[in-house]
Amino acid sequence: MAKANPVTDQERARIRELHAEGKGRNAIAKELGRSGRTISEEAGKLGISFAARAGQVAAATEVRQADLADRRARLAEQLQDDAERMRAQLWVPTTVWSFGGKENTYEDHEFPEAPADVKRTLMSAVGIAVDRSLKLVPPKDESGVEEGLALITQLMSGLTAVYQAQQQDQEADEGA
After folding, report:
1. Residue 48: burial class (beta carbons within 10 Å; 0-12, 13-18, 19+)
2. For the chain, which residues score pLDDT lower than 50?
3. Which residue in 28, 66, 142, 155 has its CB near the most CB atoms, within 10 A?
4. 3-class secondary-structure state, position 174
5. Distance (Å, whole) CA 146 – CA 143
6. Taking a C-beta distance cutoff of 8 angstroms, is the pair 95, 110 a contact?
7. How far is CA 34 from CA 3, 30, 41, 53, 137, in A?
8. What is the model's pLDDT at position 175?
């Protein structure tokens, strides 16, 4: 069955050219307006391969992932800073204002600290910022649980050895 839009000799030459320039399969496909599969098939017919670039792609992916991890860490730190600034607003003098009445008059009042409804809103925003920062960069387990378990295991082994030695001494004393 004939293809509806066969690849031309010019396109084959362009595939070879772009491949020689170091372009990948998807970049060539985009430039030529063809599917990646078509480019792969034609490259195979031309005796060229994109497999040699797989190592470069893997390295580039690893660099990109490291960059994204660094960006997430910076964003988490900024969110933590935001949470601390918002939390500080709970305890500073606050001006509450409003427009209202028939004359649409402006009124403001100074309070020694934020009103309860404002505190509730601030605490909600603080909680969200902290939660998001923890999701971006979860805290490391520094509880010492593993070290504690290792210490307990060693202690139990030592106590078992002492108990067994005492039992052997007691049996030896009874047998004598």
Report:
1. middle
2. none
3. 28
4. helix
5. 8
6. yes
7. 13, 6, 11, 20, 41
8. 72
Q: 50, 24 in Cβ contact below 8 A?
A: yes
Residue type at position 101: G
Asked if 164 contacts 172 with a C-beta cutoff of 8 angstroms, the reply is no
CA 98 to chain centre: 42
Q: Which two tokens stand for residue 155?
A: 């202690």
Amino acid at 83: A
Of 56, 80, 88, 81, nearest to 135 by C-alpha is 80
Residue type, 23: K
Q: Calculate ∠ Cα 134-135-138, nearest 5°.
A: 55
6-34 pLDDT per residue, tens: 999 999 999 999 998 888 889 999 999 99
Q: Are strands 94-100 and 105-111 parallel, antiparallel or unpaired?
A: antiparallel
